Amino acid sequence: GGDFDWTKNEKTSFYYGTFPTGFSWGVGSSAYQTEGAWNTDGKGMSIWDVFAHKKGKISSNETGDSSCEGYYKFKDDINLMKEMKLSHYRFSVSWPRILPSGLRSEHVNEKGIRYYSDLIDLLLDSKITPVVTLYHWDLPQVLQEKYGGWQNASMVGYFNEFANLCFERFGNRVKLWITFNNPWSISVEGYETGEHAPGLRTRGSGAYKAAHHIIKAHAKVWHTYDMKWRSKQKGLIGISLTADWGEPVDVSNQRDVEAAERYIHFYLGWFATPLFHGDYPAVMKEYIGRKSGQQGLGASRLPVFSPQEKSYVRGTVDFLGLGHYTTRYVTQKNYPSGFGDSYFADRDLAELVDPKWPDPGSEWLYSVPWGFRRLLNFVKAQYGNPMIYVTENGVSEKMLCTDLCDDWRMQYFREYINELLKAVRDGVNVKGYTAWSLLDGFEWDEGFSERFGLYFVDFRNKNKPRFPKASVQFYKRIISSNGFPSQREVESWKRKAVETCSSSNQLLAADPLIGHMEMVTEIVVPTVCTLCILLSAVFFMFLLRRRL
Ligand SMILES: CCCCCCCCCCCCC/C=C/[C@@H](O)[C@H](CO[C@@H]1O[C@H](CO)[C@@H](O)[C@H](O)[C@H]1O)NC(=O)CCCCCCCCCCCCCCCCC
């Protein structure tokens, strides 16, 4: 971990203070999760359109076909952002919406281009900076069928063509570009566990291959921008890497410290180390190489960068986008070579959680604010204090939870953003923060069963109305104060936010469908959210059994 100090385990109290002037506050979304309009105006199919339509892949067999109807409602959504006084909005471009077959040479869908162009124009008119992700998981299906998607090196060139088209059409107005969102999930969930599109289970090798092509594709796009567009457009190109923090179970035990370091290198370092230092983390090369040998393979399952490739990928991040949600305790655990090929077994570690950590929504997401500051300081130490934008941070509740007074989210934001402030005071070079997400959306394999939005979306109503949760007011106050000015003020925020959410709750309850839902659950348990917690416990046990 560079000069990262593993023993400096600060879990200090709340810090009152503000962020540097000009700190950027935003919210995020992605195309497949919110746009809907899956087969409208000439859009081609993406791997998520096809995957979600296969029975048994998504919770309750839901799809993102209409989702929040963001394609039609972007003007309303920008009004919500204006009210929050946001400085930036992070969204993604659906590749098949503008290139239906994936290839520029075949057909450019001008209606798709127009949609993003209008969205960008309206954001700029509203003084909101667009932060554009080029790939948030929705590969054109044709490229999956013809070439095997990210398993195939040809994706590097196709992605570059798509990115180049985006620079050509939008680059006069967009100055912050993110090539890939969370390549860890693309690789591991798409090609190792198969829980995400394209749903492949090529254990122990497919994820490494996909990641290798993604890293090269990112670097190629960075070079394209650098050579062709930068001098005219003066923008920046980054990548958004999501990583949990890994804390040693016992910091005085060297094996635990090394296991935690491996956890982070197999998560963040897998992508960040090549892009900052030109090669995979030494520990990945060592562990995967050794295990591949023990499995009788002639070469490591981890691909190798040639010397030319190393210098080509090194230094290709103008800023690092960092997504962060949660933390694990980590300890050493040996997986015998007979266990079989597996990304998870390659790491030789076990993940643990503290049952006292709050866990309001998604099974994998525990609220552990201090891990955020430690991750940020690790990045500073390991990668030479790069410019960072936090591109995702947030928490969910279960679908059935219709309580708009989302105390758990206000608590999460209050504490995580405070840890971010402490990291900025530690000297970590963070320029902006993006709350995930603006709206409840399609949560990938979980369908609509988990809600990450600041705004509640009533998915049962075909107009998909949005209702503010209390956290909208709370986040708004953090933004207008640029942090946490004083104890007296901050302590009043939650109370004030809760005052407004009771009236939103009444509006929502007036919706006949939601009103009915609340009545039913209230007969069974005292409050809707108690049911949510019980359901999540049952679901968690089911998942654990399924995984064992
Ligand atoms: C041989 C040993 C086997 C060990 C197996 C361990 C398996 C662990 C699997 C851990 C999965 C963690 C997945 C987390 C992913 C997130 O980092 C990722 C973040 O991306 C962003 O997420 C937003 C919110 O979801 C999303 O809206 C946004 O678009 C996206 O950019 N999120 C995802 O990829 C979304 C899907 C996650 C679904 C994961 C379901 C796995 C459920 C397993 C839960 C059990 C874990 C309990 C931990 C207990 C540890 C002791």
Characterization of the model:
The two termini are 32 Å apart. The longest helix is centred in the middle third of the chain and has 28 residues, at 206-233. The chain has helices spanning 31-34, 47-52, 70-84, 95-98, 110-125, 141-147, 154-170, 183-191, 206-233, 254-277, 282-294, 307-313, 343-346, 370-383, 407-425, 470-481, 487-510, 512-524, 528-547; strands at 17-18, 24-28, 88-92, 129-135, 176-181, 236-242, 245-248, 319-323, 327-332, 349-352, 388-392, 397-398, 430-435, 450-451, 455-457, 466-468, 483-484. It is α/β, with parallel strands linked by helices and 548 residues long. The protein has one domain (17-467): Alpha-Beta Barrel (TIM Barrel), CATH 3.20.20.80. Helix 15 (407-425) packs parallel to helix 16 (470-481). An 8-stranded parallel β-barrel has the order 2-3-4-5-6-8-11-13, surrounded by 5 helices. The protein has a 3-stranded mixed beta sheet with strand order 7-9-10. Strands 1-17 form a two-stranded antiparallel ribbon. Mean pLDDT is 93; it is low at 518-528 and 539-548. Strand 15 and strand 16 form a beta hairpin. The chain binds the ligand CCCCCCCCCCCCC/C=C/[C@@H](O)[C@H](CO[C@@H]1O[C@H](CO)[C@@H](O)[C@H](O)[C@H]1O)NC(=O)CCCCCCCCCCCCCCCCC. Ligand L237SY27 binds next to helix 8, helix 13, strand 10 and helix 19. The ligand CCCCCCCCCCCCC/C=C/[C@@H](O)[C@H](CO[C@@H]1O[C@H](CO)[C@@H](O)[C@H](O)[C@H]1O)NC(=O)CCCCCCCCCCCCCCCCC binds next to helix 8, helix 13, strand 10 and helix 19.
